[in-house]
């Protein structure tokens, strides 16, 4: 590990707990404010727990309102000093250079960042490695968009009067507060940091206290690439102590948040007092519908593929994904054979320390999350559902917050397990008979982030679409799904180029793609009167 540290190394091989030996201790970090490391005002720190071993492996600074004050002032200063020439009003191409340099450093440090994130969160190494690739790609992508922004400035607006000319300017919204979760620690931060910096905003990032290590390393990378000091500030700490004062700060112009719906409501309430815009990426209870034309007798490979996507949709990242397809809707004709396969595949998942090769289910992020998931399972049982598979700690793992992949049937729509987000490797299953029943069940939720459909009749769909606005075939019925994302014949693929965001209680304000940049821009109209004639509305006084 490189970069400045706020003191010596606090971790050691012993602290890493069980698993293969690792010789990669990381520096003890301070808060990243004003381009360097700073001890929190009250001098407090929070323990870092490896959830796969339950060992405490280090600590992070615990920021409070005092630190938020300093970080926001730093970001404010970076936004407006020198009339913004160095950052907020610099050409997008200038900012793009830094974003590309950050991407290159992330790529250089991919394996140590992936390891750090695995130790901090319990996510398995193949996942954290893939996430680091996505992080680098996201910085690269928004570097491209920062460059393209220069060409989009001053685009003319055509007006119906010749004596006026109008154009638009896209300007950074100002200082942004970015509050992010633990499920994809550095990636979720990057979905906000990369577009906000590309737009010319300056930022204060507050990652989740449950997994902040890689976000602090982003601070070290900013030092290495010479990012102008104060443009990005990173403060770790508790939601109530560091997140809340950031979201209510009068000098923060916008808050972008990913996390629980409950916290999203709090952030929106705090921001409302100042009419501060927010974007919220909240929870979900997304459905995956499998139709009966995915039939084992018709095609084994299609059937296997459907089973595998259903697994990936809920067991990837141990189900700690806002878009996890946690409600499985099976056509009654294929339900039994599908569930038999699903159980067989679930049994085959390697559950282990996330550092082990071939691991496909790591631990969940924390003891709190572990207890919460177990409670969901026991409530489902007591409400009359059947735990078809899983539901407990894997017997071979004595330590760590591991939960078996869990499949729950005999579910009714009034049960908690059907209605509430678990954020764990737990899927609940219902059968349907008709397409309209499937769509109705899919939409039977307050959330609206994603939905997935596995069916075979896409060719028919394409044919219909060319002819008319068909509303009869299965894929066209996707229009009836009330979600911001629809996946066809898959679940969870995520591309930086495509918009990401939900409706209903899953929040609002799109991330990723060009929409993600728009989240951090304001559009200003500039309109000029360009006639030599006076306007002529008032009568000129006769004396003149
Ligand atoms: N949509 C998503 O991606 C996520 C959803 N969740 C859901 O939330 C549940 C609880 O997880 P938590 O870690 O407690 O999520 P959370 O929503 O409380 O935490 C997300 C972020 O918000 C911050 N925060 C907490 N309270 C705050 C406040 N009053 N003001 C400002 N910031 C605040 C946290 O420190 C963290 O950085 C999970 O079980 C899951 O259901 C959690 C993480 C991500
Ligand atoms: N990178 C992938 N595959 N998914 C991102 C999920 C984002 C979320 O849980 O908010
Ligand atoms: Na942790």
From TrEMBL:
Belongs to the aldehyde dehydrogenase family. Residues 37-526 form the Aldehyde dehydrogenase domain. InterPro entries: Ald_DH/histidinol_DH, Ald_DH_C, Ald_DH_CS_CYS, Ald_DH_CS_GLU, Ald_DH_N, Aldehyde_DH_dom. Pfam families: Aldedh. One of its GO terms (molecular function) is 4-trimethylammoniobutyraldehyde dehydrogenase activity. The keyword Signal does not apply. Residues 10-21 have a biased composition (Low complexity). This is Betaine aldehyde dehydrogenase 1. PANTHER family: BETAINE ALDEHYDE DEHYDROGENASE, BETAINE ALDEHYDE DEHYDROGENASE 1.
